[in-house]
Specification:
The chain is of the alpha+beta class and about 180 residues long. The chain folds into two domains: about 35 residues; about 120 residues, Alpha-Beta Plaits. It has five helices and six strands; from the N terminus they run H-H-E-E-H-E-E-H-H-E-E. It has a four-stranded mixed beta sheet. Strands 1-2 form a two-stranded antiparallel ribbon. Helix 3 packs antiparallel against helix 5.
Amino acid sequence: MDRSRWFLLAAVASATLVAGIGFLLGQTRSTFVPPARPPSLEQQGRAVHLFFVSEGGTLVEEERLIPPRPTAAEEAKEVLTELIRGPRVDHFPTIPKGTNLLALFIDVEGTAYVDFDLTFQTNHPGGSLGEFLTIYSIVDTLGYNFPEIKQVQILMEGEETPTLTGHLDLRRPLKPRVRLQLSVT
């Protein structure tokens, strides 16, 4: 074989090799499917803490995931809806069965106005400790999860109420007392 044929054969072989590698790399790239990314935490929802009553008579946290909402007030409504549904583990509910949340809004000063129907009052079992734990499960749940909420005003059917069952003054907004530990004696 003369030198020019040898050079031509080497050039064709090299070109074929480069083209083959390029083809294989192109095939690999076009068929590569990146692994699915898990949804971001924002898409999954937001972890919130709800306060229920423990067996020992204290407020204890239970974590839930709520869907994202466009405003803090809408997220707060979702959080209270979860609180109304009750605990998922060995805790006790704080809001009477059948209670409906009618409205919730947050003013510019950080007061959350929470409006329940009358079932909240009529179905409540009463007692000073029971009333205290019910009200502060709401107040602490909102205060813990929403830093913009500085205090909570409880309303019933759109009106201020002096008390839930006669023990705790509800005529003024209440400030959160997060992680309050009050034992039954």
